[in-house]
Amino acid sequence: MEKLLEVKNLNVTFETHGGTVQAIRDVSFDLHRGETLAVVGESGSGKSVMTKSVMRLLADNGNIKHGEILYHYEDGTIVDIAKLRDGEMHKIRGAEIAMVFQDPMTSLNPTMTIGKQIMEPIMKHQNLSKKDARQKAIELISMVKIDRPTKRMKQYPHEFSGGMRQRIVIAVALACNPNILICDEPTTALDVTIQAQIIDLIKELQQQTKAAVIFITHDLGVVANIADRVAVMYAGKICEIGTSSDVFYTPAHPYTWGLLASKPNTDNLGEKLYSIPGTPPNLLDPPKGDAFALRSNYALELDFEEQPPMFKISDTHYAATWLLHPDAPKVEPPKVVQRRGAKKGVTNNG
Amino acid sequence: MLRYVWNRILMIFVTLFLILTINFLLLYLMPGSPFQNPRLTPSQRERIEDKYGLNDPVLVQYGRYMYKVSKLDFGGTIATNTYDDIFEEYIIDRLPLTAKIGGIALIIGTVIGITFGALAAIRRNSWLDNSVTVLGVIGVSIPSFVFAAILQEVFAINLDWLPLFYREANPDIGHSLKDQNLGMIMPIIALSVLPIASIMRYMRTELVEVFSSDYILLAQAKGLSKPAVIFKHAIRNALIPVITIIGPMAINLIAGSLVIERFFNIPGLSNSLVTFTLAKETYATLAINFFYSFMYVTVILIVDILYGVIDPRIRLASNSKLGLIGKLIKSIKRKFQSDNAGGEVNE
To answer: Percent of chain A, pLDDT > 70?
Structure first.
């Protein structure tokens, strides 16, 4: 599949009064045209920071220390977003890469009409006249399934419900047919029935527009529903990445095991629900070895000493744990995870 | 909304009534007499006071005064008999100068305050931001008359650039219009220090908060340039709360002008208020007092209504095409119609 975005050895730091926080530590991944990549991980694992780096929307104290974010234009030119000048970046934001944020209640300007807010990126990137931009905006509102679009154009955000506002934010994001749509926990602030509608909408619009989607979430149920591939993040690193079925049925990293085991489902019915002990490490001073070693029941001595590299499990599946080293002792993943794998009819040989 | 405005207007009347009552009683308790000529003997003074009813029981005096006020007659000066109707003959005459100086100070304060507050927020943590913060604290904590004294010392006495006092233009004694205008510079500067400092600090805080909001992030994610984000999205939202303090700020200027007008010998309304109070001219003092109070409550009402014009969330929900006035007229019409019909119409 054609590559759209390549992130290579990305390191992002934040300067704070307490010192330098290493929010993203050596993250690499690819995104292909038209696919959906879900990024999962607990709060503070660096999911949002990673996507904001791709948009270059980090707070003032955040820096891309090193690494490349290569964006492939349709005509084949490749630019490194990490080194782009601001003026060039304005041409990418909204036009090539667009973003949907977490809280629709606060992500629209309260003093500007919905119509104007949707027309803004259209007029900025597509050089349309005001009249054509209006027409396009009306089409976008009906595309996200809000009725009476002409009337809605003149309304203000406070006249919309949370779910409708998120639809509008999606309309703004899709206004210029971006190649990449980044959804930063787009359903977290919505109630459950609306969540399903928004996810269905994103899926449907993705099929229409053929955009690649990076979907950040900590809801594993949502991931299973939407993602082609899944990246699991922990302490600023990607610890496992693979197709949905790789990660869900044959997970290889102890952290992924923990995540899956702590989600209630039919495989752990009647058992005491597992929870990962301890708390994430402080990224002001990240641990020397595997960041998850302290909380892991499967940690080897080496895990405390040295950072595990990404081991290749299959063409699509990679994980960063010493357990995958040929000399590592053979360990059994937790029962819940094994049962899950058995269901798929594949054994975990990781 | 309309009901809200009616209620507010009703409250204005109650407030003004209370202000007049309390002020009347306070002035009654103040010792002294409007007739202060040292050549008057105590018995002569008492006879004159009797003639003006100043020795009647307080309730009688209060009742008489309120009855006159209800007919919009605020009385005049007692001792000099110069003014029969203090409103018509005095306030209207003195108001323009006070309003001019206060108005210019307020405009300067708003413009400079908003500009530098916004710049400080945009260039956060720069030297400009730090100086705005420091100057802002100095500006709100030092009273205006201290600045007035410093200005007089530096620009009038040491440098001799500006006249020490305000002088009205009067060609007969050699005072030109230029002298008059030069004389207004220092009072205006002294008065504008407080609004500059408060609005600057407020604007900075609001804008910093707006910058950290999600909709600014979304505006940036659309690919808008930095100026577009600042002017189209940030400033307007930051201005909404700032406008609410401009009203009370105008009123604070009145308090400031009480001292400043005396300092620069400006024949304005505030200066007269002090003079009349010291002379125990009860009616004249109350009249000016009433006027200031009336201004205060009106300004606050206007600001509240203005708030709805800028912030769509507070605007009347129906008929967004009509202007505010149109909406008011329409709701008044509807109110009458529903009253005539005797039925209830929800607004």
So the answer is: 97
- How many Å separate Cα A336 from the centre of its chain? 26
Pick from A207, A227, A247: which residue ends a domain? A227
Chain B residue nearest residue A175, CA to CA: B222
Whether B186 contacts B148, CB under 8 Å: yes
**Distance from the B160 Cα atom to the nearest Cα atom in chain A, whole angstroms:** 48
Instruction: Quote the CA–CA distance of B72 and A259 in Å, as a whole number.
Output: 79
**Same structural domain for residues A56 and A201?**
yes
Are the beta carbons of B218 and A108 separated by less than 8 Å? yes
Interval A39-91: pLDDT, tens? 998 888 888 899 999 999 998 889 998 899 999 998 888 999 988 998 899 99
The domain containing residue B220 runs over which residues?
Answer: 95-324
189-248 of B, contacting A, C-beta below 8 A: 213-215, 217-226, 228, 232-233, 236-237, 240
- Which two structure tokens, joined as six digits, stand for A350? 């990781």
Average model confidence (pLDDT) across chain A:
88
Cβ contact B220–A107 (<8 Å): no
Could you say which of B218, B237, B312 has the minimum Cβ distance to residue A101? B218
- State residue B102 phi and psi, 5-degree precision: -65, -40
Min distance B320 CA to chain A CA atoms (Å) = 9
pLDDT for the residue numbered B339: 53
Q: Is A244 within a domain?
A: yes
Domain that holds residue A90: 3-227
What three-state secondary structure class fits B56?
coil
Contact flag B237-A93 (C-beta cutoff 8 Å): no
pLDDT in tens, B24-69: 999 888 887 778 777 878 888 888 888 777 888 888 888 888 888 8
Structure tokens at B100: 């001019």
* Predicted-complex ipTM score: 0.86
Last residue of a domain, one of A227, A261, A279: A227
